[in-house]
Write a structure and sequence with these properties.
Helices cover 60% and strands 17% of the residues. It has 11 helices and 8 strands.
Length: 362
């Protein structure tokens, strides 16, 4: 078995290299986002350079989180190549250490990195993203003060009066007020009853209040009413949470919010898929290390290093794209959330192991 000293040395080398690549990615993305915010700010009152730098710092962690698999891939390839270049890998093999033995420390390191990124980094990044969105709205005034601007908002609800589908342009006041609202109201047996249009709708206890509404019923002339009441069982928290994207929800809150979204009557597949994807992240990192090892263990004296590195980068990119493609299939309902989230990592790990078995053990 690999010795404790050698194992700790290899683990430390991998941890430092992956962290360095992550910091490099963070710096590059931060610089690009900061320049873009400066361009957008223009002559916006109050949009100072220091404030734009702070806003970019709040936005970037969520973006960099998407690049974590590539940080692991490039960091692992760099560490393997350095071990080969300095002949440390040659010495380890001459001492009887197999590829599976000196792969154990890097795999343990990336599993720990994956767990920390899911349980600690993701919640912090989500909180920073939320604060960044609030600050961006206040500076640029996209949705007005206190509004949540996420495009068209849709709610499906059930009540004693039947079902209704509500569409709004935005929400404010913690989800209790909707703007530019259209409600499609159905009878308890599912038959369409009427369409209600209003500039605003306010959520009170057990009912929506549509102000200055226009009611359109089949076979009848449109009617204008001062107030239109629509029964509901929704709470302000449920309304607000139904507008939040899965990426903006911390890892620990995803299961509970997914359940609440289902209670509202909306499809919670995206939240379940994102939760399973985060759970599968450590295994995806393992797959990236195995892919890196498959293309980075060739001795320098054999040549072909550029071709080998290019093959590793392309393979990692293909694995990442495949994971996104399968996730899209899961989001469309063609695959279950666990299958869509875990299959790329499982398949990638198996293929990497197969290639290493072929290279090292014939």
């Amino acid at each position: 078995m690999i010795g404790r000293t050698l194992g700790l040395y290899i683990a430390a080398r991998f941890a430092r290299t992956i962290f360095s690549v992550f910091v490099l990615f963070f710096a590059i993305i931060y610089a690009l986002d900061f320049v873009e915010l400066l361009r957008r700010s223009g002559d916006t009152q109050g949009a100072t350079t220091s404030l734009m730098a702070y806003l970019s710092l709040l936005r970037v962690p969520t973006v960099v989180e998407q690049a974590l698999p590539f940080a692991v891939l490039f960091g692992a390839m760099t560490a393997f190549l350095n071990l080969s270049r300095k002949l440390e890998l040659v010495i380890a093999r001459a001492a009887g250490v197999s590829v599976w033995q000196f792969l154990a420390p890097p795999l343990i390191v990336v599993v720990l990195i994956g767990l920390v990124s899911v349980m600690a980094y993701n919640p912090v990044a989500a909180q920073l993203k939320e604060r960044g969105d609030e600050l961006e709205t206040r500076i640029f005034g996209k949705a007005g003060r206190g509004d949540v601007d996420t495009g068209s908002l849709w709610i499906r609800q059930k009540s004693m009066d039947g079902q209704a589908i509500i569409r709004a342009d935005r929400s404010s006041d913690a989800g209790t007020v909707l703007a530019s609202v259209t409600a499609f109201v159905f009878e308890p047996d599912g038959r369409f009853m009427e369409r209600v249009e209003a500039a605003t709708a306010r959520l009170s206890e057990n009912f929506w209040t549509f102000a200055d509404a226009r009611v359109i019923s089949p076979g009848e002339e449109p009617q204008s009413v001062k107030t239109y009441l629509l029964a509901t069982t929704l709470t302000p928290e449920q309304v607000t949470q139904s507008f939040v994207s899965p990426e903006a929800v911390p890892f620990w809150s995803l299961p509970a919010i997914g359940e609440r979204i289902e209670q509202v009557g909306l499809d919670a597949t995206a939240y379940k898929l994102h939760y399973q994807t985060l759970l599968a992240r450590p295994l995806l990192f393992v797959a990236m290390v195995l892919v890196a090892a498959s293309f980075s263990l060739r001795f320098f004296r054999f040549g072909g290093i550029a071709r080998m590195v290019s093959g590793g980068v392309i393979s990692g990119f293909v694995l990442y794209v495949a994971s996104k493609l399968v996730a899209d299939l899961g989001g469309a309902g063609l695959l279950s959330a666990p299958v869509a989230a875990w299959s790329p990592a499982v398949v990638g790990s198996m293929l990497g192991t197969l290639v290493l078995l072929h290279q090292e053990d014939g």
